[in-house]
Amino acid sequence: MPAFTRIDHIGIACHDLDATARFYRDTYGFEVTHTETNEEQGVREAMLRINGTDDGGASYLQLLEPIRADSPVAKFLAKSGEGVHHIAFGTADVAGAAAAVGERGVRVLGDPRTGSMGSLITFLHPKDCGGVLTELVESAAKPDGHA
Ligand code: CMX
Ligand code: CO
């Protein structure tokens, strides 16, 4: 069984990243700790660190605003509206974890590629996960200090 060590993040689809970030700041005091655009995923994203430090052991909210009409998040917003889009589990070895989950009959959506903050990510099909789009994340930073 692969080791999944934390909830890395919860991904939330929104139309307006800045307005949604303001809601989380004003309602809960959660601050945006990182922003970036991921061209491949077709999103502008904001990470709000909820606990820990950026050492590979923290948990985040990940706000996602589409930058292209044909991106997965744009498609989701058109169909379902704003809300929780995916959950992401942290692991020290995303390729190994994806292979192990794939052996259990879950469709893995592509090879590991670049995610937030230099991480390696892949996705599991929501139809094989009880309706939950699931992401696997290997942080660029390792909690034990080893690269
Ligand atoms: N959660 C739950 N179900 C979802 C879903 C989601 N986020 N997105 C799509 N689905 C469901 C749809 O409702 C649909 O169900 P029905 O067949 O019952 O209608 C089914 O999955 C197929 O959806 P679709 O709208 O036809 O979309 P596609 O099949 O083209 O794509 C998916 C779905 C999951 C393969 C695609 O969204 C994907 O590859 N996602 C992974 C990449 C991604 O989401 N990137 C953005 C986040 C980036 C990041 O986290 O850094
Ligand atoms: Co994500």
From TrEMBL:
Protein name: Methylmalonyl-CoA epimerase
Pfam families, A to Z: Glyoxalase_4
SUPFAM superfamilies documented for this protein: Glyoxalase/Bleomycin resistance protein/Dihydroxybiphenyl dioxygenase
InterPro entries named among the record's database cross-references: Glyas_Bleomycin-R_OHBP_Dase, MeMalonyl-CoA_epimerase, MMCE/EMCE_epimerase, VOC_core
Keyword vocabulary terms for this entry: Metal-binding
Similarity field: Belongs to the methylmalonyl-CoA epimerase family.
VOC domain location: 6-139
CDD domains xrefs: MMCE
PROSITE patterns assigned: VOC
Species: Nocardiopsis gilva YIM 90087
GO BP, one annotated term: L-methylmalonyl-CoA metabolic process
GO molecular function: metal ion binding; methylmalonyl-CoA epimerase activity
